[in-house]
Amino acid sequence: MRSARTRVHLDAVLRPLQQTTRSRLSRLPQCPSASAQARTFMGRSRPSHRAYESLNLDRMRTDSYSYHIKRQRFLAAGSIAGIVAFIYTAYLLKKEIDKPTKFDSGLPKNADPFLTEAGSKRKTVVHDQEGREMVPTGNTTIQWFPRTLELKAGAVDGQEVHNGVEYTLVGLGTRTVTFLGFEVYVVGYYIATPDIAAIQARLIKDINPIATTLVPSERDELRRRLLDPVEGEKLWLDILKDVKPRSAMRIIPVRNTDFPHLRDGFVRAITARSQAHKQEYNDEAFGASMTEFRTLFNRGKLPAKGELIMVRDEAGALTIMYDDGKQQKQKTENENVLGTIGRVADERVSRALWLNYLAGKAVASEPARKNIVEGIMEFVERPIGTVAAQVL
């Protein structure tokens, strides 16, 4: 009886506690069951409340490409701007260097080397403040060459063969090197004025044996032949070997250089011409003459605007003269007082050197060769024995 009463008493006490516990547990958040967790693990999805962002790979690729393109364009623009600034600065510096440092000569600026008169080109000849006849070169550093020269050289081998002879400018031009066109010197080709008539006669008779002057169509034919590498070299060879006019090459450096540098260029030109005619140049005498020629240039510097004149006499002997500026005070009008460096008697040396400027496939200065040809056209359009020049 007592155990039954005790059990009833415990039930009466525990029942309210159980009800209270169930009530509290019902209010707690429900935990997923193991089976639910298993179902979720096996792949059955249930809704998730976490934020997420979908990735667009195409858009990311496009943005990256656009960024790199803009970056490359920006770098290229900077490089181009730097190059342009460098070139412009160099241009301004060159303009300052080219400005004359002496008094104004009174000559017109940027004069055209040629005038056209009645369909023919003529050298532009102007007078400076001292009354000298000057010809524009077209070069910004060496702007003018005298139309005539009267050389006064020291005695060579006991003879003063050049004194008192007037030389007339035929043509001129600038020698440039490399594909960038670096200017080296301006060269002018002069012929002794008394010998021009012989050249006129030789060239006119070659085109028209009965003529004393050439008409425009005949001048065009002569111009074509002089500019042709083969026919032009033949014509000038005949003139140098048969007519033998006294002539001179006047060279004025555009920038500071030296005699060995000029010598190397001259030797290469003479060697190239001699190899083309080995039967005429292949002997010991010519080799000795070339050694003598090289020796004459064993000197020092040749400053910008210094004057180097190479003269070929009636026998073809080559005389080299140089003015380092010490003789400037002795110059009057068109006369040149120069110191004589030396002389090479073998006419083949001067002939090959002259052809380097006058004819062939490769010449030292193509502008000079063309200008010389136009100067020859001035001679042959006039009657034999007359020389005319356009003077402003």
From TrEMBL:
Protein name per its UniProtKB record: Chalcone isomerase domain-containing protein
InterPro entries: Chalcone_isomerase (IPR016087), Chalcone_isomerase_3-sand (IPR016088), Chalcone_isomerase_sf (IPR036298)
GO function terms (MF aspect): intramolecular lyase activity
Bilayer-crossing regions: 74-93
Residues annotated as domain Chalcone isomerase: 166-373
Membrane recorded as keyword: yes
Organism: Pestalotiopsis fici (strain W106-1 / CGMCC3.15140)
Keyword match Acetylation: no
Highest rank taxon of the organism: Eukaryota
Keywords assigned by UniProt, alphabetized: Membrane, Transmembrane, Transmembrane helix
